[in-house]
Amino acid sequence: GCGAAVHIHRESRSHTLSPSSSSAPSPRSALSHAMSASSSHESSLHALPACARSIFENCEMEHLHADRRFPRRLAAVEHAYMLVYSRDMHRLAFQRIQLPMLGVDASLVTGYDLEELTAAHRTCVFGAAAAARPATKYSSQLVKLWSIFFDIVRRRRHWSLVFEDDAVAQPERLWAVESALRLLHGAGHNATVSPPPSVVHLSSYHPI
Q: How far apart are CA 35 and CA 33, in angstroms?
């Protein structure tokens, strides 16, 4: 599975969408700025088009509490997120068991499966030209991912883990992730490292 460390209940999805104006920043650029801005993160989120804010705010997430019977191996991590295809019940069931074993609270991002993305959603988030093309599963994954970034910034979380739903964690290797995050946290306070890291890619189709 693929994972990344990112630095920085179910909700109703009935809302009105309108395409963003040409003068508004794209959702991608606004979220990128919000995650790295030294100014108010909230003001950066307000730079998002209103329809994009509505989409990201209303993305459904199923929250899982950490299983306290397992040691907290990732002390530097505040929260874990997983992009899931909610219609794959087998993977969903497995991750409901696995994620709490990491020792941190987690959220399964169940909203905006491909079947739920409308033309209005895609026009708002990707633009009219992209929305004119057929939607793919990657359209859904991007909306889920940007909803995660929105949630991280809104909740002012420092380090968060983000997984795809095929991730299989190896608890005996989590110490390496923790060590890397602590090292990068120190680098972020080092004047010779500029800018400090905001996203760390942990693995690519290999268990962490």
A: 5
